[in-house]
Specification:
CATH class of the largest domain: Mainly Alpha
Strand content: under 5%
InterPro entries: Cyt_c-like_dom, Cyt_c-like_dom_sf, Cyt_C_IC, Cytochrome_c-type_DH, Membr-bd_ADH_cyt_c
Pfam family, one: Cytochrom_C
Strand order of the largest sheet: 1-2-5
Largest sheet: 3 strands, antiparallel
Organism: Serratia rhizosphaerae
Main location: membrane
CATH architecture of the largest domain: Orthogonal Bundle
Shape: globular
Number of helices: 18
Subcellular location: Cell membrane
């Protein structure tokens, strides 16, 4: 059976399963369930304080990043999310009554944010309502007070661009029944206030599991909580105490520094995490950053063992070393130590040791801007090497980096780089025209 036929068959089976479950869920819960508001918007001077709190909740939830298209007006939608099932565009959440949510009530807003039901029916989980469900009633009301102040922007967005059968929203009732826990955050009675605040921020507004937890075939979270996940050509690394591929060797201050500035003595952010830091975590209070750090450091380590590193006399390792010395050592230093709080160390870096090299491949091929934050206004970027290095050169140098200076990870093949170059629309190697096909 060809790849296209398998995709069609998989889609039909998925819709059949979700449809059956979805019908049950629709009968049981329906689309018109009422969600009465326990906390209302304030008035007078109290309203201004509530709007300020709501703006902070918006920062915690990183609403700006997903609801603002590149070059577009803030919160006007149109940001493209490429899922394994197709493209979804974020909605316009400005106060425009025709193309935004200016005509919504607080209850309608709550239904969408915490319960996954919008004006067109069930929402796709690209909108992390499964995390926002944990928002407290007060935070939800404060957020609504702030959202109502966003100036209207007329921008009609066709959000659902998924192919059939994934564009059938009614099947999401079944997805919700299988994977959605519709309940507010419940603090752990035996834990400290700081630990519970960290858990709330990570699992609720921060929606860290959306990227850092692997997904199953239907897009639901697996049981590998915060142990890493792939998305849109990037790999969100393990956040558990695993000392090899996770945060086991990071201190709480390392985590705070990273979330505040985008850098620390070990690494610097890239890709979607840079967006999250620039739009969200850099604005968090010190207390909230410390709460997140305490919670993450308390997570049990994932069980993935460190693999055996490749021998230095391996052919790819020997070639990769030569490429590293000529192309990488000037910035990352000969021993991979980098420059503290500016250029990432490649030695002992959890992202380097991740089982999935997608983020490293992405950065090497296309380059990346450094995180630009209040605490790090002079960030160093990474240039693109797609035109400068062949697929085999990139594969070899990455294999070398992932198996040197105490690192250990699976080798990278030229075929992986070739595929990534195509998927990421990276520029071709300039030497290809002189040397023929790689």
């Amino acid at each position: 059976m060809g790849k296209k036929m398998r995709r069609v068959a998989y889609g039909i089976v998925s819709v059949a399963v979700l449809g059956a479950v979805g019908y049950t869920a629709w009968v049981q819960y329906g689309l018109h369930k009422s969600y009465p508001q326990t906390v209302q918007i304030s008035s007078g001077s109290a309203l201004q304080e509530q709007i300020k709190r709501g703006e902070y909740v918006s920062r915690l939830s990183d609403c700006t990043a997903c609801h603002t298209a590149e070059g577009g007006k803030p919160f006007a939608g149109g940001y493209r999310l490429n899922t394994p099932f197709g493209a979804i565009l974020s909605s316009n959440i400005t106060s425009d009554p025709e193309t935004g949510i200016g005509g919504w009530t607080q209850e309608q807003f709550d239904r969408a944010v915490r319960h996954g039901i919008g004006s067109h029916g069930y929402l796709y989980a690209a909108m992390p309502y499964n995390a926002y469900a944990k928002l407290t009633d007060q935070d939800l009301a404060d957020l609504w007070a702030y959202i109502k102040t966003i100036p209207p922007v007329k921008n009609k967005v066709v959000e659902n661009q998924l192919p059939f059968p994934f564009n059938q929203r009614w099947t999401l009732a079944g997805w919700n029944l299988l994977f959605f826990k519709d309940r507010v955050f419940e603090p752990k009675a035996t834990a400290s206030e700081q630990f519970n605040r960290g858990a709330y921020l990570v699992d609720g507004p921060g929606h860290c599991a959306s990227c850092h937890t692997a997904k199953n075939l239907l897009g639901g979270d697996t049981s590998a909580y915060l142990q890493g996940g792939a998305l849109q050509g990037w790999y969100a690394p393990d956040l558990t105490a695993n000392p090899h591929s996770g945060l086991g060797k990071w201190s709480e201050e390392d985590i705070v520094s990273y979330l505040r500035s985008g850098t620390n003595k070990i690494t610097a952010s890239s890709g979607p995490m840079t967006e999250a830091i620039e739009n969200s975590t850099q604005y968090m209070t010190d207390d909230d950053l410390k709460a997140i750090a305490q919670y993450l450091k308390a997570l049990p380590a994932s069980e993935a063992p460190a693999p055996t590193p490749l021998s230095s006399d391996n052919t790819a390792m020997m070639t990769g070393k030569k490429v590293y010395e000529s192309q990488c050592s000037a910035c990352h230093v000969s021993n991979g130590s980098g420059v503290r709080n500016m250029i990432p160390s490649l030695s002992g870096n959890p992202q380097v040791n991740s089982p999935d090299p997608s983020s490293l491949v992405n950065v090497v091929l296309n380059g990346t801007d450094g995180p630009l934050t209040h605490a790090n206004p002079t960030a160093a970027g990474m240039p693109a090497f797609s035109q400068k290095l062949s697929d085999s050169n990139i594969a070899d140098v990455m294999t070398y980096i992932r198996n040197s200076w105490g690192n250990a990870a699976a080798p990278v093949s030229a075929r992986q780089i070739e595929k990534a170059r195509l998927d990421l629309q990276a520029k071709p190697w300039l030497g290809e025209s002189m040397h023929g096909k790689k």
